[in-house]
Write a structure and sequence with these properties.
The chain is of the alpha/beta class. It has eleven helices and eleven strands.
């Protein structure tokens, strides 16, 4: 009799587990998920998305396919997702450009707050301030002193509306310095001139800069998180000299507005699970990223905070996306 009772209890527990798993599965439609990348294949968002698609698919027991809808500021892909059916089968993964572009372009075909539901901030990364190996300053403090003493410094801008430009604007505003801003249409041409010493400084993502640092062609003067990067413990944070200075690139997963809360919760928990896998840890370490995978409410608050911060810089300094 006792053994029979144990069997009944075990069977009941098994049924409960099956019921919970089934309920989780029913939160998402039984169809493949489209993960839209609003930039070209091969870039930072695309590389992260393709790794995440595999691990998220395992976590939610669905096939996740990456689709690129490239444009300079991510508008085309974002607009497509905003207009898609809000059932969790079409998602957007984008960079900080998602929260910055609305301040540069007044008439977007979507509203980032009204037309989207943030699922989570997947990951983030500070920028690195890099210089040619022959640049006279070897530390951020020395570079700052050069600028304040009137030495002419050429600062490369690898884009007109990205986080790299805004980090440069935030630096010159907070440090109250003037630099010669040299615009480029992309990081490729900027790196060529930076390595050759034709320009002096540039903010960039660690993932694309560190290959040149490791090869001995560039050096890191500082990073833009509130604390030092664990992978670059000898490089000071700008915030050590200019308290509160922070400029992050970040990667957000978002769904169309109106997506059911149960679906959003399942995608959030699935992403958090995916980000803990060895495969994702390897990608993060390689590209200088830090996992975030925060709750939905935190992701929404973060998006609002980043928009407000950079919108003020853009308006105060009368910036435009040339």
């Amino acid at each position: 009799m006792i053994r029979h009772r144990r069997l009944v209890i075990a069977a009941a527990a098994g049924c409960a587990s099956l019921f919970i798993a089934s309920a989780h599965a029913q939160d998402l439609p039984d169809r493949p998920i489209r993960l839209v990348v609003p930039f070209a294949a091969g870039g930072g968002v695309d590389v992260l998305a393709r790794a995440l698609a595999v691990e998220l698919g395992k976590a939610v027991n669905r096939s996740v396919a990456v689709e690129n809808r490239p444009s300079a500021t991510g508008q085309i892909g974002a607009a497509e997702v905003a207009k898609s059916t809000p059932d969790g089968t079409t998602l957007l993964i984008s960079s900080a450009a998602f929260g910055i572009t609305p301040s540069f372009i007044a008439k977007l075909p979507y509203d980032i707050f009204k037309d989207f539901e943030p699922v989570t901030v997947v990951a983030s990364t500070p920028q690195v301030l890099v210089a040619p190996v022959g640049f006279k300053a070897n530390t951020f403090a020395e570079a700052l002193q050069m600028a304040r003493s009137g030495t002419s410094i050429n600062f490369a801008l690898p884009g007109s509306s990205g986080i790299q430009r805004l980090a440069t604007e935030l630096l010159t505003a907070n440090a109250q310095i003037n630099v010669n801003k040299v615009p480029y249409k992309g990081a490729g041409a900027a790196f060529t001139d930076l390595i050759a010493g034709r320009v002096d400084l540039m903010f960039d993502n660690p993932g694309s800069s560190m290959v040149h640092v490791r090869s001995g062609r560039l050096k890191v003067l500082a990073t833009t998180g509130l604390q030092r990067l664990s992978t670059l413990p000898d490089a000071p944070a700008v915030a050590e000299t200019l308290p509160g200075f922070e400029a992050l690139n970040w990667f957000i997963l978002a769904a169309p507005a109106g997506t059911p809360s149960a679906v959003l919760d399942r995608l959030n928990s699935g992403t958090a699970q995916a980000m803990k896998t060895d495969a994702m840890r390897q990608v993060l370490e390689r590209d200088g990223l830090e996992a975030v995978a925060n709750p939905r409410a935190s992701a929404s608050a973060f998006l609002r905070s980043e928009f407000t911060k950079w919108d003020k810089i853009i308006k105060d300094r009368n910036l435009s996306a040339d």
